[in-house]
């Protein structure tokens, strides 16, 4: 059976399961015969990637031999952190498509030349986020990032406050920065992204479904009509 490996570059198994559940639900709604989704959590690093050091550790952890061995058995791979850590090195070792949730969601947001913003919880990654957007050639479309206040880890343990804080960041992207679409920037923010997608008439893009769509295309698997 065709299967996708979703790698969580942070050490939270709860985050892994949440992202896997989102991917499975999306694929089940989009396809008549969806591929299976299997999660893998890195063995070292941080429970949430909040700064450049965490991102660097995650890049190494994603390329751990055990993770690479699992990825080699899959038909497609998703790297489930917004900075897409370690993705180039992972691709170099594999013969299957590898998609990162960061690049996938940003590219989708910029579809048709739309101006887009990013709403997330990690201000210490502001420059890294902007740099990744520029590397994709989408700097001219980017209206900037808006961040929640307070400790990202603590906020992640309070779903209602997380959603409220991200909603404020989305509002700022739309009404102050002029964005026409907003990306929710982070794998651990997947459930909040789903809720916010239902609250706003403007596109609010969840990173995990965006990665699924990009991977289906790369795997040449069509979505159901």
UniProtKB/TrEMBL annotation:
Transmembrane segments: none annotated. Pfam families: Asp_Glu_race. InterPro entries: Asp/Glu/hydantoin_racemase, Hydantoin_racemase-like, Iso_Racemase_Enz_sf. It comes from the Bacteria. Belongs to the HyuE racemase family. This is Hydantoin racemase. It comes from Pandoraea capi.
